[in-house]
Amino acid sequence: MPEDLDPLYVEELRRRVVDPVVKSLVHPDELEEISVTFAEEDFARRRANFPWVEWPSSPTRYLTVALKACGEWVVSARWAVSENDVWDAERFADDLYERLRDELTESSFAWAQLRDGEYEVLGPLRD
Description:
Layout: E1 3-5, H1 10-25, E2 31-41, H2 44-49, E3 60-69, E4 72-81, E5 87-88, H3 89-104
Antiparallel strand pairs: 1-5, 2-3, 3-4
């Protein structure tokens, strides 16, 4: 698939990638909530403490995907997002799948289970 996913458009991100991937790995009776959030990190404090490191000059926005299942939160990972980014939906889905699959093995409800699932990345909505 071409790069056609705006990571800042949360509804599309969830519809096309996050929901299908999560639901392929977490059973319906386990899944309680899916969370897609953005947070900005300002590196000013880090620059002051570690001046020899080349930190970004402006705050960086991060996308975090998490899910709540059987009363436990599992966080897949964080991805840096720029204002004009356009992502390849298939590539993002594959990355989310692998990271989430790894994190689930550490959860109490899926301890040591290397779960497999199948998902389909949906196409963009047409105007």
